[in-house]
Design goal:
Layout lengths: L1 H22 L2 E7 L3 H15 L2 E7 L1 H9 L6 E4 L1 H9 L9 E6 L1 E6 L10 H10 L3 E4 L6 H12 L3 H4 L3 E4 L5 H5 L5 E5 L9 E6 L8 E7 L6 H12 L4 H6 L6
Parallel strand pairs: 1-2, 1-3, 6-7, 6-8
Antiparallel strand pairs: 3-10, 4-10, 5-8, 5-9
Length: 254
């Protein structure tokens, strides 16, 4: 009788493990640039909790919009609300699945060890940009939301002709790389792309009057192989258990 009871104890967990393996899914996630560090930090926990495997690719919002429009397969997209809505209207994202996940403001970076500039007011921010030898930011032609905004902001501030000739443009990725390498003495980018980068110092956010906070929203692709797994990933990303992690990465909730 003892032997039989023991066998029963062993069989139950093996069946449970088999069920988990059978139900595990692969989820392809496409994310816009500013969400990269947060995604890298939290995906292992999601995979551990669910047994699902997530593969992800990261690019500018404009680049992702183009790739999806041209037919790239994916399960979940994490991009700006306008892009998610446009892709929903064209049948690439399931209607009603949009969920606002995060909000990221823009800030300034300088090389570690460099003097910290004053950016406390709009005038101080303008003086800093005009005085800089080289200013790094995302190439607006690449479709990166921060680069598009900042390039227009230069004209609003009346310093476009002074700053553009010394611009160091990055077509996606970390603007902070150009600052850390010394190619630019100032970088303007989304805060979540500055905070985790070694070799630079986050000076602070843009003054409130000219701040641009980008919201990032998730949606399920119409061609998703496993809609329930895709939905579970979005719920996880929106859940309160990630609030502290996101904050540490320079990301707020919308």
């Amino acid at each position: 009788m003892k032997a039989l009871a023991l066998i029963g104890v062993v069989v139950i967990p093996l069946v449970a493990v088999g069920d988990i393996a059978a139900s595990a899914a692969e989820v392809k996630l496409l994310t816009a640039g500013a969400m990269r560090t947060a995604v890298v930090a939290v995906l292992p926990d999601f995979e551990k909790r669910t047994g699902n495997k997530v593969t992800f690719d990261n690019a500018t919002a404009g680049s992702l919009a183009k790739r999806i429009s041209e037919g790239e397969a994916f399960d979940v997209a994490l991009i700006t609300p306008a892009v998610i809505d446009d892709l929903t209207n064209t049948g690439k994202i399931v209607a009603g699945t949009r969920r606002d996940i995060a909000k990221v403001g823009m800030g300034v970076a300088v090389k570690e060890g460099a003097a910290i500039p004053d950016i406390s007011t709009v005038d101080a921010f303008k003086r800093m940009l005009v005085a800089a030898k080289a200013v790094a930011y995302i190439d607006p032609n690449s479709g990166g939301s921060s680069g598009v905004y900042f390039d227009k902001l230069l004209d609003r501030l009346g310093i476009g002709d002074q700053v553009r000739p010394k611009a160091k443009l990055k077509r996606g990725g970390y603007v902070a790389e150009l600052v850390a390498s010394g190619e630019a003495d100032v970088g303007v980018h989304q805060i979540s792309e500055i905070v985790p980068f070694k070799g630079v110092v986050f000076v602070g956010p843009l003054p409130a009057e000219i701040q641009n906070a980008t919201v990032y929203s998730a949606g399920i692709g119409t061609g998703a192989k496993n809609a329930s797994a895709a939905r579970a990933l979005i719920e996880f990303l929106a859940g309160p258990s990630l609030d502290d992690i996101l904050k540490a990465k320079g990301i707020e909730r919308p």
